[in-house]
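Record filed here:
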Amino acid sequence: MLRSSIALRSLLAAAVVVVGCQEPTTSPASAPIAPTAPGRALSAAPLTVSASAPAVDKLFGEFGRRAINAGDYVCTNSTPILDLLNADLARTLTASPEERARLLTMYNLAADLVPTYEALFFQTTATPQSFGYNGEFTTIMGKTERKVKSFWDIPSEQIQVLAMHGTMLLDTARVSLTYQVVFGEEKAAADAYAVAVRDALAASTTMNGGNYAFWTFNSVSFRYPGLDDKIVMGDGILEAFATLGFADVAPQAIFAHEFAHQIQFENEYFGDLTGVTAAEKTRYTELMADAMAAYYLTHARGEAMNQKRVEQFLQVFYQIGDCGFTSSGHHGTPNQRFKAAQFGFSVAAQFQKQGHILTSEEFHQQFLAYYPMLIAPDAATAPAAP
């Protein structure tokens, strides 16, 4: 077995699973290529500290090491999106002892990681891409890719936008290769694991041949030496938010956030902070990506979406925020993330009247100026976004 099922078994006993977060962080290029939790990305090269780093370091004083509401924010596992995913899992777990065993077999063999890594390491746009269980998001993803790339000023022609499908778990050749190259398994073991995954999924009465959100509830922004730059969008994350009524905004919002990470890779913003914890670094880059996405979504020359509609989606989307203040994957609390988005909205409103699009560095500098207020504890005297 690739991993123990103890943690999952304890969670599934109550039919509650917190599914991996969907946004990426970065890790040094010198790190080994190995599986990590869903919602991770690898950086393209050793990152250097940007010119703005000294100023940013000053932000981490009395307020910088505190969450905006660390003392009074109550994190919960009951949110619309988690409730939806947990309902799917509960149906599988209670369908029959055999069906429960199939899910546990697949989870023990890291089937929830395989589609992500297979897409990142082996898929390219040389193969026509289809987004969604039945291709229903293909058109909007193509349109969104073109608009986002033309909006921001970084080189982006090389960034491949790829789909992640749970149905690939039925393809033993692709699954085995992923186990071998990414997970480091010997071929004989990898082949056996791939067959076990395929057989469990093929026999399942509830997991729809892989069109099951748990296996692909993910989106990832990716750079690594010698490999193509990629953004991967999982079927599961698109379909789940569509089920909640956000098919008109979720694809654009999620992609805009992932593209913001490509901006950070390109401009070396992942190197902004020095001498801080991994949790603080991740929170900083994630909140910046939230702000950049909101700026693009409501800018007149971006998606030009209605701010209220975007806010409705983000209120649900950002509930995947967390209170793991010391975790290397800490994205900020839901309140922090929404406040970052509100900052993006305000910048869009300020500049779009003249039809002006800020360069990525201009936006970066605006974000740096606002960041101390963003992460400061809630207070009536906290300055408002510009």
About this structure: Residues 278-298 form the longest helix (21 residues).
